[in-house]
Design goal:
alpha+beta, Metal Transport, Frataxin, Chain A, 7-stranded antiparallel β-sheet, 3 helices, NADH dehydrogenase subunit
């Protein structure tokens, strides 16, 4: 994959992190970093050139993970963002597009994320 494509993915990942944090806050959910990029942790005083150090986060409900979001590390060949709902089989693989993340060929928007989180919260309340 071209470096420009990788740069777009990581910039779009940062945008998604902002959406996740805002959508979690608006629902009274927690938002926590899970892990940093391995190459950030082991960079040995070299400058870090990605727009974030965060590789994965979780949205929590009552202290329990509700959704996990992660982006591929730089050394992966086929990079993507993954979203996974905990306690089920639902997951999404998002790829970099010209104007933002794509879910297949469909743009993945903040409204789409809000819909997914609403469904997850509704599922937790139903249990």
């Amino acid at each position: 994959m071209a470096h420009a494509h990788d740069s777009a993915l990581y910039a779009q990942w940062v945008e998604l992190l902002g959406w996740l944090e805002a959508e979690a806050a608006s629902r009274g959910l927690g938002f926590e970093k899970v892990a940093d990029f391995p190459d950030y942790i082991y960079r040995m005083e070299r400058p870090y050139d990605l727009p974030t150090t965060v590789m994965s986060v979780r949205v929590t409900s009552g202290g329990q993970p509700l959704m996990i979001a992660a982006v591929s590390p730089r050394h992966a060949d086929l990079k993507a963002v993954s979203l996974r709902l905990m306690g089920g089989s639902k997951h999404w693989h998002l790829h970099a597009g010209a104007a933002g993340l794509l879910e297949g060929k469909r743009p993945f928007t903040q409204a789409r994320l809000a819909l997914l989180l609403d469904g997850a919260v509704q599922g937790v309340r139903a249990v």
